[in-house]
Design goal:
Layout (H helix, E strand, L loop, with lengths): L1 H9 L2 H8 L7 H4 L18 E2 L2 H6 L24 H4 L10 H8 L15 E2 H7 L18 E3 L8 E3 H5 L9
Parallel strand pairs: 1-2
Antiparallel strand pairs: 3-4
Helix pairs in contact: 6-7
Length: about 180
């Protein structure tokens, strides 16, 4: 009851209006950022924390035709215990992971990899971390934990990471 009395006294509409009246104005540091007025975001280096999705680079603002997939195959079959923690990465980016390899190939030092959460705006990093959870159980490859699936090429029946299977655009047959 003591806490409720304090909340009633100090958490008021007036307090919120006073605190957030200039929220969009920003502080002196925010106002000091030099920008060019634009209706769209000016994409920078592709290894930044925020990168333009390749779908938009290839197809502009009309991605509809890129969504016409032929010959698609499943990457995994997962049981009832799968969670977003298994699918979307959140931890540290390891140097020997597909995301770490990508960052390294683009001149980012391992000490600057950080965590997937800080690079959430960069789809190139995030797609390389999808299904990267070391405890993920894909029923297509029983007995193996982690981001693995079976390959669909007859010449390569070995298991590979889900990321490699999902991104092997150069080896797909065109329909």
């Amino acid at each position: 009851m003591e806490v409720q009395k304090l909340v009633d006294k100090f958490v008021t509409t007036r307090a919120f209006k006073k605190r957030y009246a200039d929220v969009f104005k920003g502080d002196k540091f925010w106002r000091g950022i030099k920008t060019k007025p634009s209706l769209t975001y000016a994409w920078g280096r592709q290894v930044d924390l925020c990168a333009q999705p390749s779908l938009l680079r290839r197809h502009g603002q009309d991605p509809g035709r890129a969504l016409q997939h032929r010959g698609a195959r499943p990457l995994g079959q997962f049981g009832d215990s799968i969670t977003t923690d298994h699918i979307s990465p959140a931890g540290s980016i390891k140097k020997d992971s597909p995301a770490g390899a990508y960052l390294g190939e683009h001149g980012v030092e391992a000490k600057d990899f950080n965590q997937y959460g800080t690079r959430r705006g960069n789809h190139e990093v995030m797609m390389r971390g999808t299904f990267a959870n070391i405890r993920l159980k894909n029923e297509m490859v029983p007995g193996i934990e982690g981001g693995f699936t079976i390959t669909t090429r007859p010449t390569s029946p070995s298991r590979s990471s889900t990321w490699r299977c999902a991104t092997r655009r150069s080896t797909r047959r065109r329909s």
